[in-house]
Amino acid sequence: MAALTGCHFPRRQISPGNSNGRSLTTVVRPGVGHGRSVVSVRRRPVRSSLQLDVEKSTVPLAPSDRSPSEERFGFDAASEAELKGKGLTGLRRTKLVCTIGPACCSPEQLERLAAGGMNVARLNMCHNSREWHRSVIRAVKKLNREKRFCVSVMIDTEGSQVHMVDHGAASSIKAEEGSMWLFTTQNFEGTRPFTVKANHEGFSEGIMVGDELVVEGGMASFEVVERIEDDLRCRCTDSGLLLPHAKLSFWRAGKLVDRSVGLPTLSSKDWVDIDFGISEGVDFIAVSYAKNSEDIKALKTHLSTRSAESIRVLAKIERLESLENLEEIVEASDGIMVARGDLGVQIPLDQIPAIQKQVTSICRQLNKPVIIASQLLESMIEYPTPTRAEVADVSEAVRQQADALMLSGESAVGLYAEKALSVLSTASLCIEAWAREDGLRNLPPLPRLTSYLSDSIAEEICNSAVEMGNNLGVAAIFVFTKHGHMAALLSRNRPGPPIFAFTDDANTGMGLNLHWGVTPIVGNLFEDMERNVKESIRFMAAIAAVKLGDVVLVVSDLSSVSPATSAFTQSIQVRTVGQ
Ligand SMILES: Nc1ncnc2c1ncn2[C@@H]1O[C@H](COP(=O)(O)OP(=O)(O)OP(=O)(O)O)[C@@H](O)[C@H]1O
Ligand SMILES: CC(=O)C(=O)O
């Protein structure tokens, strides 16, 4: 095998074996072209082949004779600023999701969040009107179009939950210990003191005197002292704040009384919201209270008939049943949200860290992005700095290499939305740098994802590419991808170098926004792979993302159909940025 030239890193023998120690059958044949060694892998006469090119020659930086590369690709303005500020190693790998609410919904506030690194804007359909959601979605899309941001949009379904719709005040109100409150579904004009209106007619069904009513997983607690038809008179036993839309749960003898039995995961309102999301071109739909894979499959079937674009379905893990059916839910969905807020309503809080770790690990094994959500920086709703414990919690999620972190109330209603985002960003960068130094080689082995030959070739290429990239210390990994599959497979290996995913499909780019370490770059791609490689390197050099002498690993799953063989080639190449 030819040695690499012009590379300033320890030279190692490049082997097509993957990180799990499995290796493909290899045939080394004489180099083709100028100074290349090619390791090709052939199995049966299938239409796929793997090509490993280690190229001595450099990619010249002279401008191409066509239109400038810079105009060919759309690079996210926020990532570009990050790159300019800190270089490739300073590019954040952990993705950031912000819940949009009244505190951050103006075009100016959205722009500041986008500039601060928001990768995905989340809209919780529990709150506010569809008109309001529409205006936010359109404002985000306008920012993407006009200011070169690449912020995806997620809607989050309300789901069948019992929550307050009115609690006798405009915003929050404190329930004092010993005070008596009426929980009702009666319709009345305006608000009444010490009266909480619940959203669901049957909210008190089966509830008995002596049961405990818990608000928002423990913000405040009440004891049911009397039933008056369907209403409940309750005494506050644990004082606390009642917030708009706070969730209500009932407990008997230390066990949750499940109020969602018999209710569908997606309510009729959710289906209307979903169709609204389709018509507004959202990128992700998060399904609240997913019970099993059927919930996810039903929505995917609906989307496949209603939307030409691919809208990714995320399952929220926030109820006991979702934990019981965890693997099938992860398999069926395009990603997962560990919704620690509602999870904490149903299971003891001390179990949440272990569940977060388990869900994160399963998602990585099954190659699905995972978002860690709720209360990451809760105190920043009111204060300009987080608590030490909050920073430790964020750092632990980054150390677990979750794909994304999410702000909830901190951005939606908090006083310091942009600061909270900046805390997430800084903490992520800090732990990622530490993990690269310290923990990179201690990742647990990944199981094989598939037994289908064509898919396992892609998987083997990506596993090998990451191992090569790490060992060679390349500056970056470039992947050319149509549907994002190979970019996701590379990300699953959590490589040291950043991944730049070049695609000509804007929808693929938006979907990749949730994948750890992947920066999507949308633009025109050519039939000719060599031309794509050269143009991409020139483009990245033009924006100073790579510099002279940098070595990049190039991976492709584009179907470059050779007229002679009709072969479908997937490849890994090592290229040097040249004069
Ligand atoms: N669009 C909005 N309009 C008004 N308030 C909002 C909006 N989105 C969020 N909020 C406020 O921000 C808080 C946090 O929002 P978030 O959606 O993360 O929490 P949540 O309502 O508990 O979520 P979920 O219902 O999915 O568990 C909410 O309690 C609500 O007060
Ligand atoms: C985000 C969310 O829905 C939760 O944590 O419950």
UniProtKB/TrEMBL annotation:
Q: Record's family?
A: Belongs to the pyruvate kinase family.
**What EC designation does it have?**
2.7.1.40
- Looking at the record, the residues that make up the Pyruvate kinase C-terminal domain are 459-559
Q: Does the keyword Magnesium apply?
A: yes
- Annotated organism of origin: Spirodela intermedia (Intermediate duckweed)
Which residue stretches, if any, does this entry annotate as coiled coil?
Answer: none
Gene Ontology molecular functions: ATP binding; kinase activity; magnesium ion binding; potassium ion binding; pyruvate kinase activity
The record's catalysed reaction(s) read: pyruvate + ATP = phosphoenolpyruvate + ADP + H(+)
Identify which top EC class this enzyme belongs to. transferase
* Domain of life of the source: Eukaryota
Q: Where is this region: Disordered?
A: 1-23
Which part of the chain is the Pyruvate kinase barrel domain? 92-420
Q: Which cofactor does it need?
A: K(+); Mg(2+)
**Metal-binding recorded as keyword:** yes
Q: Which UniProt keywords apply?
A: ATP-binding, Glycolysis, Kinase, Magnesium, Metal-binding, Nucleotide-binding, Pyruvate, Transferase
Pathway info: Carbohydrate degradation; glycolysis; pyruvate from D-glyceraldehyde 3-phosphate: step 5/5
* Entry-linked InterPro entries: Pyr_Knase, Pyrv/PenolPyrv_kinase-like_dom, Pyrv_kinase-like_dom_sf, Pyrv_Knase-like_insert_dom_sf, Pyrv_Knase_AS, Pyrv_Knase_brl, Pyrv_Knase_C, Pyrv_Knase_C_sf
Protein name from the UniProt record? Pyruvate kinase
What range does the record give for the signal peptide?
none
The record, for PANTHER family, names:
PYRUVATE KINASE (PTHR11817)
GO CC annotations on file: chloroplast stroma
